[in-house]
Structure formats: C-alpha cells, structure tokens
User: What shape does this take?
Amino acid sequence: MKKIFLLIVLTAGIKTFSQTPSEKFEFVNFSRVNITDNFWKPKIDKVATVTMKACIYQTEIKTPRIRNFEKVANNKGEKFEGIYYDDSDVYKALEAMAYALKTHPDPSLEAKADEWIDKVAAAQLPDGYLDTYFTLRDINQRWTNIEAHEDYNAGHLIEAAVAYYNVTGKRKLLDVAIRLANHIDSTFRLGNKKWFSGHEEIELALVKLYRVTNDDRYLKLADWYLQQRGKGGIYTYGKTWFTPAYWQDLKPVKDQTEITGHAVRAMYLYTGAADVAALTGDNGYMTAMQKVWEDVVYRNMYITGGIGSAGDNEGFTKDYDLPNEDAYCETCASVGMVLWNQRMCQLTGDSKYIDVLERCLYNGALDGLSLSGDHFFYDNVLASNGQHQRREWFGTACCPANIARLVTSVGNYIYGKSNDGIWVNLFVGSNTNIKISNTDVAVKMETNYPWDGKVKINIDPGVKKNFSVHIRIPDWQQGGIVPGDLYKNANASESVLFFSVNGKVISFKEENGYALIDRKWQKGDVISFEYNMPVTKIAAKPEVRSDIDRIALQRGPLVYCVEGADNKDGVWNLTLPPNTNFTATDYRVLDEPVIALQTELPSAKANENGDGIKIEKRKITAVPYYCWANRGANDMEVWLPTKIKEVKINYSSKYEDGGNY
Assistant: This one.
C-alpha cells in the first residue's frame, strides 16, 4: 500500500504546461522520462547517491550555509557566516535533490530535503522577504545593492520549490517561494522601485513559477525584470569591472546584438528572455536572442561548448579570444548554455540549437563532474601542464550543485511533443509516454550512444494514428561542426543516411535539421537508423590565434584530448600530421568504459646531448575530454599542434618551446 500511495502522490504533484502558440514544440519533462542507457543512467545514479552526499555534507556540516537559516529562526542576534550568495547553494542542492528523488527514490534523502525546507521556511520574514545575509546583518540594507544577489538567491529558491513540488507534490517550499515572489513584485513592479537583477536568474525562475501556478503576475514580473536593463544609473557596487557590459546592461534586452560580460549571468538572462518570448509572443526578445546567440556561437564559443574565456570577469572579452591553458569556461556557464539552447530550439524547431546543447552537455558541462561524483571543476581549461585538479568543494560553490541538477534532469532534453508529432532531440536509451491528440503513444529508445550511432525507436500508439516523428540529424553527421564558420571539419566526407521502419528503408523529409517521418503509426512500429561516427579533425578559424596550426579531435558528440595518464612520455611534445588516421578502440578510464582514439604520432624529445631535439614516433591514446583529470594531476591538450615549432620539449622537467631549436 505504501508504494501505491507514493505513486499517486508523485503523479498528482506534476503540473504540465501546454505548447504555446510561439513554440514549435514543448519538451517532455524529465519526470516523465525513464532513462535506461549505459551512459547517462550510471551518472544519474551516482549523482543521486555520491554527489548528493557530498553536497549535503559541504552545505550542512563543512560550511555554515544551513546554519545561517537556523540563526535567523533562532533570532538571537547571531552573525552571518560565509558569502552573501550562499543561500543559493542550499536552493540549488534542494533542486538537485528533487530531481534525484524522481530518478532514484530515497526516503532518507527526501527526509533531509524536508528538514532543510523546514529551516528555510522558518527563516522567512512576515512580509515574505527571505535572505539570511541581510536578515542577520542589517535588514535595513536589503534591496539597496543590485550586486548583493538577493533576487539571484530568490530565483534559485523558486526553481527548487517548483522542482520539489513537481516531484513530491509537497507545497511547503512552493508556498515560501510564492510569498517571496509576491514580496518582490510588490516592492519593485507594483512599488515602482528602480532596480534590476545584478546576477540574472530570477527571470527564468519566475516563468517556472507562472507555469506551475498559472498566476500571470509572475510572468509580468519576469518581463518587468527584462525591461529594466539598458536604463543605467543604478550601480552601487564598488569594483571597477562591474560595468554596464558586465551586467548585460549596455542596451535594453530587445536591442542587444552582442554577448558581453559575465557568462553565467548572460545565459540566465537570455534563457529568461526566451521563456518570456514563448509565453508572450514578443518577437522583440526572439530577434535579439537570435542575434546574441550568433555572436556567442560564431565568435565566442570553445570547441567543447564552453563559454567565457576570462577569469577576471568570469566571462567574455573580445571576439575570438579563446585561449586554451588560460580558459575559464565556468561549468555553470555550460549549464546555462544547455538551458538557453533548449529554449531556443523550442521556439524555432531548429536543430542547430540542440547541436550546440549536445556539445555543451557532453563536453563543457559534463567535464565539471568527476567520474567518482564527488570532485568538481569550476573552470574547464583545454590545456594543462598538470596544474589543474578537481576539487572537493569551492568557497563559491555554485558549480557542484549546478552540474548535479543538470545531470539528474537530463531527461528534460530528450523528447518533445507538438500538436501533430513527436520530437527526438538527444539519443539516450529511455522510454516515455507522449499524448498526441488524445492518443497515448509509448516511445522507447535503445542505443549505445555516444559510443556508436545505432539507434532504435519503438513507436507504440494506443490506436493507429497519423502523426509525424521528428528525429534530429546531428550537424557532425553531415560533416559540420557547429553553426557558423568558427570551426570546420578538416576531413569532411559525405555520408548517406537511411531510416527504416520495421526493417524497410523509407523516404523522409529533412526540415530544420530534423528527419521528418510522417505516416500512420501502429503498435509495434520500430524506426532504425545509424549515424556514422568517424574521427573528425577540426580546425579553427584563423582569427582564433590560440588554435592556429592546431587540430582538435571529435567522434560523434564527444571532443577528445590527450592526457599524460595515457601517454607517459608527455603530450605537449606531440605533433599531429593532417593525414593521420585513428583507430577507435574500447578503453577504460578508471571504471568508465569509453571509446579511445589511438594512433602513432611524431614525438619530440631532447637529444642525448641536451642541446637539441629528435623526433620519434610513438603510440598515443586520446580519451573523451569529460574524462580527463580523474587520475591525478596530468598534462593535457585538446588542440594538438601540426607543426614542430608549436611543441614544448621537457628539458630537465622544464617545458620549452620546440620553436627555439
């Protein structure tokens, strides 16, 4: 009886929101997708167990984040401990816990989440305000500094509340979020107070709150936040690099055409703008988003999908400034790219956005989480002399919980539905049930992706029915790399793609990067196809000075790197001749089964006299980028030089440029 009751509660808690007139389709919520494959399922389980334990330990025991909520409730005049945005880490962890409960039910984890929620609720003031930093320090200073992250914290609270309600049906945190959102709305939009969010996040969160409550004051407040940018004159924070560009505040959102400033803030802003555009039909936002997106992808994105090259502003500098060893590429920024590109695809039905989403997900974002699940990268470099290592936690700890909530909710990005069809966006072994015009359609996908491109999709409608199935054709399958010309396939070759239904090759129409199969479907129908996965050599546009005369490797959606753990004689002394052929082979990085790439490459080393170099060929192994730095401190490179002048030789444990000799 207990199991039956739990199922009823979970189902009752899930709210759905129909496709809007501005959207080409809506994504199927992760809570309705059961992931079964050998790539994502183990990672989801590991996050639900190992990563969640690490987040709870660091948030509750090792750091004062939970204690601050307890201090507010105790009302004894105790001092705040930590950083002013620490509340947000509690909320991100709660959101990840919610997703973990769906994918990996655990009564003890749910009890811990309920315990935290009780403490959060006890810290809320009677007027709805909730922020431990100002409540413990000086409540009279609340809402006086746009850089104080009050609405950023609030946004993550709202996201956690919606997620927890959708998974468990419990309203306590949702009611806290509603009271806080009402307080913010009364203070600013209705109170006509000049303001904008220094760290964007609340915009997209308010849209989620609108979707779950159907109260349009939250949609209006999200739109109000967007409209406050570009007005200037309300900066009160002292650091010189906090400029209008840093806050995406040079122009009103609808007039923006270029990416600027802090990468994570920008991603959250533009995700919120796309959300509002979908619900209001405001083409001004959509036009701006497309222009800014092109500026990011065409001129400012790493081959891994990472963005934000500079550490001093955690963001963007100038076009084509994409250094490798000094790359910043914050994990949270890659998470933001996943969110933004999902929304852009939903609005346009164009697969190019999922191409970018997939690149970010499998490379720039997943690299932020160790294979063990309990160590993390904050920034994600593309080259290292061994000075970069994963860490257990960070003083600013946004990334661990952020990557945890992304991995546990990866089901959000697989399937979509429109009034007339089903959309398959990512290739992940999974199953779901999608309703098309009042007909339930069971969908089951089987694949060993990303290691091979064979995919089988079972389409089982309750009754025979006409509808379309849209299957994304990845850019790399057709010889592309990313939209635009920032990167090109240096060994592109044409491949023929076939789709079959029930073993018979069928014709299909390609539309916006999707194979569209339109027919009367019946129970037992099976779609089969295979995407070729050759090893692709990638060259960057000459404007990317860091990658001149260098080649990167990719197979399927995965970017590869060479790492010292697999190449004991070094990686910085290798050159990659353009005509090199690679062999894809089964391999393991610790306990992670992968496909590695192997070949022989010229290797430069010091000669016997130590006054010059000699070239020898040796076997090298390249592994998926997301796997690196799991075996201790290691040298690593993504972009391999094609000329000897670019290599670095180890003379007495000191690297020197090969071009000196």
Remarks:
- The longest strand covers residues 592-606.
- Confidence is low (pLDDT under 50) at residues 1-17, 651-661.
